[in-house]
Amino acid sequence: MGTVVYRYKRHIPNLPCFIAHNRLAELQQRSPPSLISLAGGAPNSNTFPFQSASITVKNGQTVTFDEVAMKRALQYSASNGIPELLTWMKNLQKNLHNPPTASYSPESGQMEMCVTTGSQEGLCKVFEMLVNPGDNVLLDAPTYSGTLAALHPLGCNLVNVPSDQHGMIPAALKEVLSRWDPSEVHKPGSTAPKILYTIPNGGNPTGASMTAERKKEVYELARQYDMLIIEDDPYYFLQFEKPWAPTFLSMDVDGRIIRTDSFSKILSSGLRIGFVTGPKPLVDRVVLHIQASTMHTSTFTQLMVSQLLHSWGQEGFLQHIDKVIEFYRKQRDAMISSADKWLKDVAEWHTPSAGMFLWMKLKGIADTQQLIMEKALEKEVLLVPGGVFMINSSEPCPYVRAAFSLSTPEQIDEALKRLSALIKEAL
Ligand code: PMP
After folding, report:
1. Environment class of residue 212 by beta-carbon count within 10 Å: exposed (0-12), middle (13-18) or buried (19+)?
2. Which mutation among 144, 230, 238, 266 tests ligand 1's pocket best, with the greatest number of atoms within 8 A of CB?
3. Which atom of ligand 1 is nearest to the CA of 232?
4. Measured between alpha carbons, how far is 344 from 348 in angstroms, rounded to an integer?
5. How far, in Å, from the CA of 186 to the mean position of ligand 1?
């Protein structure tokens, strides 16, 4: 127990092309000015039409790109991310999660990180790296539809672990795992799951957040069955109550946690900046997958974010987060008070302590698909029918997801009033 074996989908050899790419990049950086390189495959940025940029930050600061910075921003960059952004994030990660040093690869003894084009890219690459057709993958559904979209084409079996308002239920996980013998998980032909995916805070769509106790129990079960846990935590920074619950990453003594973080909900979703954090051998392989597909996250957006973060420092960053939390807490409160006003007799819900979603079960409605996709539009209210978050989306589902991120409290109130009328008509 505790010894982790990384079982990749297939072995990605360290191909000559990868070695050459990395070695050349390194040589180019360390080379004396007298070296004449005919090696690079990058275009000449003198031919690009953009010259400089200055972006005004809401607090009056500016993020500027002079001609030299602009040339770099417009050029290819390292597949794992630009060094200054990575260093900044590694420090933040260390301060927030303080991952136990023993957790990281026996080879390197350290945590590794890479930048991804949103956490969605990180998730996709992690699944691509690990999941074979026919593998059993554990997750607590309902879950993020983007995860289902990433997993379905891989031809794996999605195995549901029941959850409630506090996320995945450890006793239910134990029950699911009892199908396999922990001493046989490494035997050839074993069908025991290698990975477990979960959204620990402000779940999408459920709004559920896992307690520290549950995380500990789930982690212990992962140790018994030598599973990796994919901790997909884009709502980590949107936890309304402090202190924030310890993360899986913070309890990882073996090197079995792969964590995905996102700047989408706190800095910008369109800039597409996310991170994968985990044991070095796993993150290095994610980087190979990036190198083979997008090559890297936009240099321009990485530099833009990096400049801002360096000027803020960690303290300034966390002060910004506090303001974002304050906004979402008020929005959540507005939605709950309108739900109390309009939906008490026709729906059930739990108040989310993080994120941007309220997950509601409509009483007496077996399936919300038609009601939401057709009738709700007539009443000019739009929600997401719960079925899209289920492993088997064709089964009837009485839930709907309501987001409190974009609408004003007045709009939220009107929307839930319309939803209430709609449900009453349908009953
Ligand atoms: N995971 C979850 C649970 C999400 O809700 C989302 C976005 N909706 C993502 C990952 C992807 O986020 P992004 O790629 O913007 O970081």
Report:
1. middle
2. 144
3. 1
4. 7
5. 32
Instruction: Map tokens 């983007």 to a residue.
Output: 146
End-to-end CA distance of the chain: 53
Query: Mean per-residue pLDDT for 237-250?
Result: 96
Distance (Å, whole) CA 21 – CA 42: 12
Assigned token pair, 281: 């051998």
CB 144 near ligand 1, within 6 Å: yes
pLDDT score of 106 more than 50 = no
Single-letter code of the amino acid located at 31: S
Cα 327–chain centre separation: 21
C-beta 120 within 6 A of ligand 1: yes
Q: Which value does ipTM take for this structure?
A: 0.99
> Which pLDDT value is given to residue 24?
73
Q: Rounded to whole angstroms, how far apart are CA atoms 337 and 354?
A: 16
β-strand partners of 348: 361
- The string of pLDDT tens digits covering residues 9-33 is 765 566 666 666 667 767 776 778 8
SS3 of the chain = CCCCCCCCCCCCCCCHHHHHHHHHHHHHHHCCCCCCCCCCCCCCHHHCCCCCEEEECCCCCEEEECHHHHHHHCCCCCCCCCHHHHHHHHHHHHHHHCCCHHHCCCCCCCEEEEEECHHHHHHHHHHHHHCCCCCEEEECCCCCHHHHHHHHHHCCEEEECCEECCEECHHHHHHHHCCCCHHHCCCCCCCCCCEEEECCCCCCCCCCCCCHHHHHHHHHHHHHCCCEEEEECCCHHHECCCCCCCCCHHHCCCCCEEEEEECCCCCCCCCCCEEEEEEHHHHHHHHHHHHCCCCCCCHHHHHHHHHHHHHHHHHHHHHHHHHHHHHHHHHHHHHHHHHHHHCCCCEEECCCCECCEEEEEECCCCCCHHHHHHHHHHCCCCCEEHHHHCCCCCCCCCEEEEECCCCCHHHHHHHHHHHHHHHHHHC
- Quickly count: other Cβ atoms within 10 Å of residue 403's Cβ: 18
